[in-house]
Design a protein that fits this description.
Blueprint (H helix, E strand, L loop, with lengths): L2 H9 L2 H15 L11 H10 L5 H14 L3 H6 L2 H8 L6 H13 L12 H9 L6 H4 L3 H7 L6 H9 L6 H12 L8 H10 L9 H14 L5 H14 L18 H4 L16 E11 L4 E6 L10 E8 L1 H6 L6 E8 L3 E11 L10 E4 L10 H9 L3
Helix pairs in contact: 2-15, 3-4, 3-12, 11-12, 12-15, 13-15
């Protein structure tokens, strides 16, 4: 940690800061289903959904997933294609594949037995009939270190979470604190923004150096007596109050301590590293349709975008080819779709044919059955706009 930040943390009246922040949270927080539970499975599902998704959009998918897959065993037992279908439209499909893979790896882990529905059974197994009340306390560090099994002490819980595919330091910290009330920081984009302004820190938070620096800040600032409440509060503060542009600093519960406010640098923070250049790609999809309303689709393979998702017959063109080539078909739709580092220029061409051509690695399906397959958001837009 830089000397300035270290000195500032040392001088800070943390107890008063905790009081102001946590009282603000109690009054202003949103009612969200994953905040109303300490089930690690449901909290994990919510955190994976919200990695690249706004709460408003993620809410529908959270309910959809936990309704169809109410526990880790049901998710582990499902086919990947079904998981992708329930994830369809949310984007960043590697999250769904990792979610499924992690469920298969962790379905028997002891920590996923620790939820409100079966806590008494775990208590009986771990402590005996006379000491069931202790089971609730395993979520606190002091008891976890002393009375739980080796698998359930805080270090092992965090290490197990961190070993799951698709789970990094942030997600592991979030689950550890929200499900078990363990003293681990949860650093999402909202928290990075709050911390960068609180300390007036100009280090880019998305660099290797920045991640280490801000993690140390978060660890030093964390309310270790109430980590779940503190992490919830500081994340909510970033989401609702310390917003990217024009935050209302006059009513912020942390304005007494905010160095960026004192130095008039709020709008300059946080600092990000320069973004990579966006690459243009040109995709041409052919949608063959027979009089019987059947078509061809194929599943994407390899390590390219949309792995294991379905699409219509596709050919990728170079920029010059895409510009020169004149598409011929009964109906043509051109769409643009922006990913994190790619801009996709797509052309969908409907071709009515008496019979489908023989194309390797394709599947014949009825147009009425397209809902049974997981497509990218780009292809879903085309299906909707072409009224297939």
């Amino acid at each position: 940690m830089c000397i300035f930040c270290c000195t500032f943390v040392a001088k800070m009246n943390k107890d008063l800061l905790y009081k102001e922040l946590e009282e603000w949270y109690e009054v202003n927080h949103r009612i969200l289903p994953w905040r109303e539970t300490d089930d690690p499975y449901k909290i994990w599902i919510s955190e994976i959904i919200l990695q690249q998704t706004r709460v408003a959009q993620g809410m529908e998918y959270y309910h959809r997933l936990v309704t169809r897959f109410p526990d880790i065993q049901s998710l582990a037992d499902a086919d990947e294609d079904e998981v992708l279908l329930y994830w369809q439209g949310l984007g960043y499909y590697s999250r769904a594949r990792n979610l499924h893979k992690a469920a298969q790896l962790m379905k028997d882990h002891e920590m996923f037995k620790l939820n409100n529905d079966n806590i008494n059974n775990v208590a009986t197994e771990s402590y005996g009939e006379a000491d069931r009340s202790t089971a609730r306390e395993i979520r606190t560090p002091s008891v976890a270190k002393g009375k739980t099994s080796e698998l359930l002490n805080p270090e092992h819980i965090f290490a197990a979470l961190r070993s799951m595919p698709g789970v990094g330091d942030y997600t592991a910290g979030a689950i550890a604190s929200f499900a078990f009330d363990l003293p681990y920081p949860a650093l999402d984009g909202n928290v990075y923004r709050v911390l960068s302004r609180l300390y007036d820190c100009e280090i880019a938070f998305d660099t290797t150096e920045g991640k280490k620096h801000f993690r140390k800040l978060a660890e030093d600032l964390l309310d270790r007596e109430h980590p779940r409440l503190f992490n919830s509060a500081i994340m909510e503060l970033g989401a609702l109050h310390c917003v990217p542009t024009a935050p209302d600093c006059s009513t912020c519960p942390l304005n007494t301590w905010c160095k960026a406010l004192a130095n008039n640098t709020v709008e300059l923070l946080p600092v990000r590293k320069p973004r990579p250049k966006v690459r243009d790609r040109y995709l041409e999809y052919t949608i063959y349709i027979t009089p019987e309303k059947t078509t061809l689709i194929h599943q994407r393979k390899g390590n390219d975008i949309w792995k294991h998702l379905w699409e219509f017959v596709c050919a990728e063109r170079t920029g010059e080819e895409a510009i020169r080539r004149e598409a011929k078909g009964e109906k043509i739709l051109e769409l643009t779709h922006v990913l994190s580092h790619q801009k996709l220029h797509a052309r969908f061409v409907i071709k009515n044919v008496s019979e489908l051509p023989e194309i390797p690695d394709t599947l014949v399906v009825s147009l009425s059955d397209l809902d049974n397959y997981a497509f990218s958001r780009l292809t879903l837009r085309a299906i909707e706009e072409l009224e297939l």
